[in-house]
Design brief:
Elements (H helix, E strand, L loop, with lengths): L1 E7 L2 E7 L9 E5 L5 H8 L7 E3 L1 E2 L2 E2 L5 H5 L2 E4 L1 H6 L6 H7 L13 H13 L15 H13 L5 E5 L7 H15 L6 E6 L11 E6 L2 E7 H4 L2 H8 L3 E6 L2 E6 L1
Parallel strand pairs: 3-9, 3-10, 7-8, 8-9
Antiparallel strand pairs: 1-2, 1-4, 5-6, 10-11, 12-13
Bound molecules: adenosine-5'-triphosphate.
Keywords: ATP-binding, Nucleotide-binding, Transport
GO molecular function: ATP binding; ATP hydrolysis activity; transmembrane transporter activity
Subcellular location: Cell membrane
Length: 253
């Protein structure tokens, strides 16, 4: 994004955002409620058009590229995706629909597709869920299935929009372990992980972007951004930061 601004109803929601992601980097986008995170994601996916500035995604410049084709290379896991799915489908069909980037399945899948789905689910320790109806799963199980679904299309960019919201600590750690494994695969897509919670920033997230009221507050290498000084300023609260298992944990001073 080069000098990207987005205005709605006389309000400047995103203000002069410059953001470049290199291949091999994985980013966390952190901001409080209403800071503009979803608006940035909608711009990246071409669902909104910037009021000013330039956007290129996966080397394709907006305005010169077919967005429907580009979207096939972007996996997106979000709460709104979860609402759009047909909850009465089996998890095999939910995961398989990711291959076609559709909500349901409209083509006859080949047997090898189902083999791939089963392998994927087993790989993510979800083998015991095979045959289950999606809406009967727990929230944590649903998130893992949705991430698996997004991987079916072999995306080059995977956007995870607050995947741990509403999860208990155990389910959250399971989802984070899955994300860590994805990030460390040789063929990993570039990850953008959106969260309000600093402690969810895994060591695999090389870079962090702190967004505040539609502006870049800080961005750069996670180790340089996730400091006591920067985070205290960002949250306007006196905080101490403790490092544990390569993650930063915040405490009120
Ligand atoms: N289409 C729109 N028209 C008018 N205002 C909008 C529109 N979309 C977003 N906004 C406003 O822009 C601001 C940023 O919203 P956005 O949803 O991007 O924030 P967010 O960081 O994703 O918040 P949250 O963490 O609560 O999901 C909010 O004040 C929101 O009301």
């Amino acid at each position: 994004m080069k000098h990207v601004s987005w205005r709605r109803e006389q309000r400047l929601i995103l203000d002069d955002i410059n953001w470049e992601i290199q291949k091999g980097e994985h980013w966390c986008l952190v901001g409080l409620n209403g800071s503009g995170k979803t608006s940035i994601l909608d711009l990246i996916n071409g669902y909104h058009w910037p009021t000013s500035g330039e956007i290129s995604v996966l080397g394709k410049r907006f305005g010169e590229t077919d967005l429907r084709e580009l979207r096939k290379e972007i996996g997106w896991v979000s709460a709104s995706m979860q609402q759009r799915l047909h909850g009465y489908e089996t998890i095999e069909n939910v995961v398989l629909s990711g291959k076609y980037a559709s909500v349901g399945i409209y083509e006859k899948p080949a047997e090898e597709d189902y083999v791939q789905v089963r392998e994927l689910l087993e790989q993510w320790k979800c083998g015991h869920l095979l045959g289950r109806i999606y809406q009967t799963l727990s929230q944590g199980e649903k998130q893992k299935v949705l991430i698996g679904r997004a991987l079916m299309a072999k995306p080059k960019l995977l956007i995870l929009d607050e995947p741990c919201t509403g999860l208990d600590i155990f389910a959250r750690e399971q989802v984070l372990t899955m994300i860590d494994q994805i990030a460390n695969r040789p063929d990993a897509p570039t990850l953008i992980y959106v969260t309000h919670h600093i402690e969810e920033i895994l060591p695999c997230f090389t870079h962090t972007f702190l967004l505040k009221k539609g502006k870049v507050a800080q961005k750069g290498l996670s180790k340089d951004v996730l400091t006591q000084e920067i985070l205290s300023e960002f949250f306007q609260t006196s905080l101490s930061v403790e490092q544990k298992s390569g993650r930063s944990w915040l405490m009120l001073k």
